[in-house]
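Sample pair:
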Amino acid sequence: MKIEKAKIRDATQMQRLINHFASQGEMLARPLSEIYENIRDYFVVRQDGQVVACVAIHIMWSDLAEIKSLAVTEDSQSQGIGDQLVRACLGEAKQIGIPTVFCLTYKPAFFERVGFSRVDKMELPQKVWTECYHCPKFPSCDAVALIYHPEV
């Protein structure tokens, strides 16, 4: 499967995919307007013209980026697509010189397999919590924080 930067035409499919898992409490829902605004952050995998997986890497500051909205259709899981998408994000972080990448997830074991390490959420700068107000679980967040340090 080929990993590519997302295109505007992918946005509605990406939103459906992300919000499918959000409705199951596995990630934060994303409004379509936010996906359009941040389309350059996203990588996708398409199969037969349909988005079957997506992920975003969002730059927070000069030294920090977040991996978010990692979603792979049930039919495409367990094929290494999620790993490849995360590695694409980490490669981009390294390429542009971001020394720390973090994620907030309900699937920490997946990210640990890719090389992330758990950290206490309180160790992350306050700016990482800007989206938390939109989460239905706020302020009782049970997501796990993990970080990765690409060699820049």
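The chain is about 25% helix and 30% strand.
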